[in-house]
Amino acid sequence: QVQIVQSGAEVRKPGASVKVSCKASGHTFPRYAVHWVRQAPGQSLEWMGYVNAGTGNTKYSQEFQARVTFTRDTSASTAYMELGSLTSKDTAVYYCATERQHDYGFDYWGQGTLVIVSS
Amino acid sequence: YDLTQPPSVSVSPGQTARITCSGDGLVNQYAYWYQQKPGQAPVLIIYKDKERPSGIPKRFSGSSSGTTVTLTISGVQAEDEADYYCQSADTDGSYVFGTGTKVTVL
B70 in helix, strand or coil? Predict the structure, then answer.
């Protein structure tokens, strides 16, 4: 059974950074793209980018390119998203999702990680 | 580029709901649809414009015409009340989500 489990909620002050983890089990992690998507309260989904779990190659949305880093640890089947220079506008639920085959959509999602940025 | 959806759609149980998603890039790129219920992560319900993942009920279908794609829910059930998002890719390999549609079952 495929399962994606993310790390727990975080509270940060403005200007700080946050690192969220995304652990996959039940399938072959290194073959996938792991996407990061966020959702501010009451808002739509916003694509942040992805990391190729096998090669480590990344693609970032221009919106976040200057302050986000995606990494992965294939031995732990875990991907990471680190977002810096946080402001209150970064308060959101952050999801990771796998794309196991290109053009087949984001097929498995983590439960989401709430990040609150507040002074 | 932007993907535009109607903010809300209301439908009675057993009727058909249609949700549109419009964007110039849809002419050349596949569309995907996700269902999201309150407090839950999105679930993929349509990929490659009209394909259904395993386990998704047949009442969900997708279609495409030019710059508009449509999600159709036939024989709507109370459990279909949720937010629905379309998604597509840009030519540079980035992705974009639609503005979202809230489906209310009357």
Answer: strand
Q: What is the mean pLDDT of each run of 10 residues along chain A (119 residues)?
A: 93 98 84 94 98 94 97 94 98 96 94 98
Q: Looking at this protein, which amino acid is placed at residue B16?
A: T
Contact (CB<8Å) B53/A107:
yes
- Three-state DSSP class for residue B54: coil
- pLDDT at residue B28 above 90? yes
Residues, chain B, total? 106
Q: Is A58 on the interface with B (CB under 8 A)?
A: no
Q: Chain B contact for A111, CB < 8 A? A: yes
Q: Check CB contact under 8 Å for A46 and B97.
A: yes
* Secondary structure class of B83 (helix, strand, coil): strand
Name the residue among B36, B48, B85 with its Cβ closest to that of A103. Answer: B48
The pLDDT > 90 percentage for chain B reads: 98
A44:B98 CB<8 A: yes
DSSP string, chain A: --EEEE---EEE-TT--EEEEEEEESS-GGGSEEEEEEE-TT--EEEEEEEETTT--EEE-TTTTTTEEEEEEGGGTEEEEEE-S--GGG-EEEEEEEESSTTS---EE---EEEEE--
Distance in angstroms (rounded) separating the CA atoms of residues A55 and A58: 9
Residue of A nearest to B32 (CA): A105
Residue A93 Cα to chain centre, angstroms? 10
